[in-house]
Amino acid sequence: MCGIHFALCSSGPVRPDKAMVKLLQSRGPDSFQQQEAIASARGDDHSSGKARPFHLRFSSSVLSLRGDHTAVQPFLDVETGSILCWNGEAWRIGNREVSGNDGELLFHLLVHEAPCTSPDQLSPDEVKVPVTSCIPYNSMRSLDPDATSLNTKLPAFNRSQPSASIPLLNLWSSSVMKLERSLSESMRLRVQNIPHRSTQAIDRSLTGHCKIAILFSGGLDCTILARLAHDLLPLDETIDLLNVAFENPRVIAAAKHRPTHGFPDTEGSDPYSSCPDRITGKSSHAELQRVCPARTWRFVSIDITYSETLQHRSQIISLMHPHNTEMDLSISCALYFAARGRGTVYNPGTDITHSYTSPARVLLSGLGADELFGGYTRHATAFSRHGFAGLIDELELDINRLGQRNLGRDDRVISHWGKEARYPYLDEDLLSWALTCPIWEKCGFGQDSISTGSDTEPGLEPGKKVLRLLACKMDMKGVATEKKRAIQFGARTAKMQGGNVKGTQLLS
Question: How far apart are CA 28 and CA 384, in angstroms?
């Protein structure tokens, strides 16, 4: 993930101020460079009869995670005067896997194989990238301010509905096996070949180097990612599991009035261990240790006091802008502190808890699984009220607004710490399969009241059933039965200042 700033002005070049430069360098700590150019806008200035000049200033910071060297930006081709700022993630171009730096390869294609074209004229089918933004400029033609994005074209959502006889999802259903293959391939692209950085500060009291961390609530989506990462990484690489819990005054106050029935009340003395995501996180961590005993799984407990939340509140609001609801803030708080990676690690060998900051600069997120496979409560509600037609409508709505509602906000908050979020469930090939896959091959709605036979695990919720069956196939039956819990409730960032606040309420 890189930081990009672009300024266009008719009176002279506009440089980013010190505060903006600091923000850009937080996103990309490995390099910061700027380029200037003068261009004529499309059309003439009729008052003077001359083309109107504009001053362009491109600024880019770089978080170097692709290839064997730091690819300094903005990319510049002296011969053509072409400039490119790029902060996307291109994993494949055409049928060719990107093995080095994706930005360098894309710039080469734009300059040498598709001269005088803009990224929107480069076929989206050729560039396998879930979401990206870039700023291109070619001095051999007029400035085109519309040529600022690559948008992947995905297939239409499969709206077919099952017949009276609903095919039952089980462990050996083709969709379970296809999901395992597609998700494994998506993970392979995202976790392998991450460059080693010898300058990273590593806590030598804890063994094992770490390049990958999981945003880890202990839920179904992120635990499956952790399990697949184990299959793809060398055993000497530790995988960090970043688990965040918050001190919530509202929850603590409510606990004081709750009957204890003779048991000690721990909310006041330790509000973190009772957080739902801390409980599920430790449970899923134990399950990973059981099924992958040769791997070092480092469970990082990230405990955030209420005073620290308030201290960073204005910074978080600024980063998540233009999102501005209470729910956006609750989600962003959890992601912001989890991405920082600063917490404690318990060493069972010495019975000592160490302070620790994860050196991993690639963070894996389970975003997209709920939207693709029907994991939210509103999906079950839509089915109960309107059947498969209502469920399909709700899923299609969620997929269509995923970029606008989640991706930009989450990327801005996470990348502030010089980390890159990667989203395996949003790989283009996996997305294409999931969108064209019939609804009954992804969810178990309408199947739970039917006798399912020996190949279907009992007690699985219908939401995200294909993922739950995959977890069972991986021998993680506890994870397979975990109920969906929104991050703001699992980490307890919701309603910190009062119970009557709604998630949709605008920040004051």
Answer: 47
For residue range 139-160, list pLDDT tens digits in order. Answer: 554 444 444 445 567 899 999 9
First to last CA, the chain: 31
- As a whole number of angstroms, the distance between CA 364 and CA 190 comes to 9
Q: Among 203, 142, 244, which residue's Cα sits nearest to residue 360?
A: 203
How far apart CA 331 and CA 271 sit, in angstroms, is 19
Q: How far is CA 428 from the centre of its chain?
A: 14
Residue 9 appears among annotated catalytic residues? no
Catalytic option among 2, 134, 222, 333: 2
Alpha-carbon distance values, 424 to 225, 272, 466 (Å): 8, 29, 16
DSSP H or E segment with residue 394: helix 377-400
Query: For residues 144 and 148, what is the distance between their CA atoms, to the nearest angstrom?
Result: 9
**Helices (DSSP H) in 402-476: which residue ranges?**
402, 408-415, 428-436, 465-473
Give the start-end residues of each E strand in 231-351. 237-246, 297-304, 342-347
Specify the 3-state DSSP secondary structure of 37.
strand
Q: What is the mean pLDDT of residues 431-460?
A: 78
Long-range contacts of 188-192 (CB under 8 A, 24+ apart): 188/232, 189/91, 189/92, 189/97, 189/427, 190/91, 190/362, 190/364, 190/422, 190/424, 190/427, 191/229, 191/232, 191/233, 191/362, 191/364, 192/232, 192/233
pLDDT of residue 143: 46
Report the range out of 53-57, 181-185, 256-260, 480-484 with the highest average pLDDT. Answer: 181-185
Task: Judge whether 62 and 451 are in contact, CB under 8 Å.
Answer: no
pLDDT computed for residue 487 by the predictor: 80
* The amino acid at 264: P
Separation of alpha carbons 480 and 153, rounded Å: 32
Integer-rounded Cα radius of gyration of the chain: 24
The structure tokens listed for 68 are 């064997």
Alpha helix ranges (H) inside 292-376: 306-320, 326-340, 369-373
Choose among 489, 488, 490, 496: nearest CA to 253.
496
Is pLDDT above 90 for 337? yes
Single-letter amino acid, residue 117: T
Per-residue model confidence as pLDDT tens digits over 460-489 = 999 999 999 999 999 999 999 998 887 887
Closest to 239 (Cα-Cα) out of 284, 180, 272: 284
How confident is the model at residue 197, as a pLDDT?
A: 72
Under 8 Å between Cβ of 480 and 233: no
Q: What is the pTM of this model?
A: 0.90
Among all chains, which residue has been given the structure tokens 């007690």? 459
